[in-house]
């Protein structure tokens, strides 16, 4: 059995430090609370609040911008003030945001609550992620094993939370959306209390730096920016689970009902296979080769659908290429995500790991924002259905060429 308390290999069991266990469990709790609410937000806004479709999309886009776009701010604050105050402040804002959203009835109130929810994550997520990466490097240097194993465990915890959260939300939705929001807030109350008690005031080895002065060297760091672009291409490809895949499922099955099963398949693969895959890859591939292999698998996933579409298959047989896409995309994710996060400490300036971790998300998030608009245009262009999938296959394949070649 694999738990957040230890990483079990084929011949050894390596215990993680109490701080790493706390941070990994934090990711689990964060995602349970967040995904208890997020999957049901669009329907609530369009139904109970009565927003038009374009307004619902605008609000969801604002949430993404206030979160992903401001990760670099949260990372810089973590470098300056430490992990504890930034994480605690983020939890307080998330509690307030979920509570506000549960009672919001006007568009202006909803927008305010959503911005607060997004900014909360922009505070605590880069703080936690950068400290996990730093601790993973220390764990590797002490002889514990590859840092990617720790980061893979962090990914598994997040995916498990993303799987459990919607189940909790669906259960509470039988009461009403307010109950869902208050439950999400309750999860973060528990996280806040646990971190106020257990998270150290000062983490050994962490040096605080000034907030200003780090952006210039970051923008001149070509190897890091190349990693951001490659990671952004991966995220753009992964985002097709929510854009291109639903359209393909609708074409093949006549409805989007099979989507839930495909999402469950992806989550199950990550939870059960991430650690064995990372252990196997870590013994054989460098970080660059791991990312290159993952991007190649993702490109192959798009290629499977592009090659199958001219036959026009429908029904259960028509869904097989979509399932193949999900499997290959998820396997690629297992290789790319831990390797990218493990690479950041080697490219970051001393004392600026939070800034660089946040910048990885912010820059790649901007790429996804621009790329998604282009993808939507491509899907609506009236071209043969195979063409958008073939074009999308080129994105991760081309990203292999962007990967830094040293280190």
Automatic annotation (TrEMBL):
Keyword DNA damage among record annotations: no
Subcellular location: Cell membrane
Signal peptide start and end residues: none
The protein's name in its UniProt record: MFS transporter
Keyword Transport: yes
Transmembrane annotation, as ranges: 20-42, 48-65, 86-103, 109-129, 150-171, 177-199, 224-245, 257-278, 290-309, 315-332, 353-374, 386-403
SUPFAM superfamilies given in the database record: MFS general substrate transporter
